[in-house]
Amino acid sequence: MRPLVAYFSNAALENNIKILKGKSPQSQHCAVLKADAYGHRVENLLPIINRTVDYIAVAMREEADDIRQKGGKLPILLLEGVFAPEEYQRASESNYLVAIGNERQLRMLAESDLTAPIGIFVKVDTGMHRLGFTPEEAFSVVERLRALSTVASITLMTHFATSDEADSPLFPKQIERMAQLERLGLPQSMANSAAILRAPTTHQSIVRMGISLYGVSPIEGTTGADFGLRPLITLRSKVIHTTEIEAGESVGYGARFVATERMPIGVIACGYADCYPREISEEAYVLVGDHRAKIVGRPAMDMMMIDLRSVPKSAWDQPVEIFGERLPIERVAAWAGTIPYTILTHLAKRVHYIVN
């Protein structure tokens, strides 16, 4: 078996849920499991999620169906809403909650005849300008929804654009715009991961645990460990080949790295087809056992090369940590000029998982 393995920690998941609940004790908790649980494979999370939180959220109905087939038992919120009228009936049959963010979705619901009424989340655009009704429109939307027998409950929700930024002028404006809707007397869901961690006034009725659930910080310059969170995944591989190169010889595609002296090179079974970024800083390294080994040359589709000069030869066969408990994915993302989300959601199906 190829030695690239993602080690999934149940203990880390339990820890993260406990931490996030502790920061928002008066709220209900929604686990965001879209994009196959941010690449973590949703079936790995469901046994714990089913008994520890109140809701699940996904992007679309197909993801909700997949979770139901894999044993998800909680109400599931469709964050993008539905795209066809018949999906409302599917929601009615399957205990899905549905977000509504535009007139077309509202009209489709009004024209639907459902087996049972469904819970509706009204998306309010308070400044993200992605989905949702304006705060002014929300009053009439709620009035129309209250007149429908197909609606079991109404919750107002918004999404923060800059809750991860300490001094953003937009963040308090978004909070203020939602506060204007409090006279509707409806539950609200505002807080995403960053807001759970740093803005308790936004917690309201339901908080949405996204990247923080997976032990990753959404706040630049920090890691999940700064908040007591633990990564659910540690990605490890092995050195599968070693070679010695002479001064002046190059490594990898494009010959970007050129040796200045005779040196040992190790080849790791992990590449950009697995999730590791192709464009990476010269500062990037992995951990071979307890030793840092710099990545040299461009990562290829299936492999990447490392400088073994700092690693004792006796340690060359030790596990190689690519990111995880000891090497935060936030650091790897910074080396690549990206965010941890993009790396995690690109974890390939060919990567083996071990759950413990």
TrEMBL record:
Keywords from the UniProt entry: Isomerase, Pyridoxal phosphate
EC numbers on record: 5.1.1.1
Modified sites of kind N6-(pyridoxal phosphate)lysine: K34
Any one Gene Ontology cellular component term annotated for this protein: cytosol
SMART domains referenced in this protein's UniProt entry, alphabetically: Ala_racemase_C
GO molecular function, one term: pyridoxal phosphate binding
Coiled-coil regions, chain positions: none
A biological-process GO annotation: D-alanine biosynthetic process
Pathway per the UniProt entry: Amino-acid biosynthesis; D-alanine biosynthesis; D-alanine from L-alanine: step 1/1
Organism superkingdom: Bacteria
Binding site for substrate: R130, M301
Enzyme class: isomerase
Swiss-Prot/TrEMBL cofactor(s): pyridoxal 5'-phosphate
Catalytic activity: L-alanine = D-alanine
Domain spans labelled Alanine racemase C-terminal: 232-356
Active site location: K34 (proton acceptor), Y253 (proton acceptor)
Keyword Membrane: no
Family: Belongs to the alanine racemase family.
Role description: Catalyzes the interconversion of L-alanine and D-alanine. May also act on other amino acids.
Protein known as: Alanine racemase
Species name: Ignatzschineria cameli
Gene this chain is encoded by: alr
